[in-house]
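Reading group handout, session on sequence-to-structure problems. Before we discuss, look at one worked example. The prompt was deliberately terse, the way you'd type it at a terminal:

> structure Histone deacetylase

The input record follows.
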Amino acid sequence: MLKIAFDPIYAHPLPEGHRFPMLKYELIPAQLLHEGVITPENLFSPKALDEDTILWTHDKTYWEQLRDLTLPAKEQRRIGFPLNGQLVEREVRIAKGTIDGCHFAFANGIAFNVAGGTHHAGTNWGEGFCMLNDQAIAANYLLNNNLAKSILIIDLDVHQGNGTAQIFEHEPRVFTFSMHGANNFPYRKEKSDLDIALQDNVADEEFLTIVRETVLELINQQKPDFIFYLSGVDVLASDKLGKLALSKEACRERDYLVLAQFKQAGIPVQVSMGGGYSPQIKDIVDAHCNTYKVATELYF
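And the output record:
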């Protein structure tokens, strides 16, 4: 059974001005339920993550400043909104949902987190609406519990996974791959194990060709025993922050290409949703829902 981490707190504790793009966290499961793609049994609500596991990835002082709501104002501005306790709890639950998803992926081949993809959070900083890096936390959890020896993180969000790259800069057991807009946030990039920086207005055929060739090559080279996939839909031509030119159909084909390769290789995968900032919320939700539909078609 496909298992999907979802909690109502994912959507609600955000300040005014940030709520529109966050509506998707409620609307994605609602749409999947409405269409009969999933049932309520597919959804699970994660609990809070323990501090020891957070500290395998994030600096102790940084985490305590988040927890105690004492992060300096300058660092809060870098994140993009003022701290409150619900926001921190949201991040902690998202990270736990991604870890729980890893266990479900071992059992079922794949699992999802409706939220997550908080790839701009580094060891001791938050940035771009990301405070705790859910997939990095989960990768370190797998390593520290001897559940995986070789991990591949595939980040196809339009923005570079700079926090993920920094966290694993000196960790040979985790290979980080980010394909993103060259002229997009973050403007100070970190160094992933593999970065492919795309120029503005790259469209369907070029994008899909690169994905098809690169992902297969990485699977063959790295031979991972676990994969994290960040499936941002801010690659759409309609995205107001994206600068690429993909159609909704090509975004779906992207997900089919990568998930089919994971399935064929027999490698479990955890999927976090990443960004999406099209002006019409329907475009965001439809594109994200396509990822779930592809997974259902391939795995179940």
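Points for discussion. First: The chain has one domain: 3-299. Second: The beta strands are 3-5, 43-44, 110-113, 151-155, 174-181, 194-198, 226-230, 269-272.
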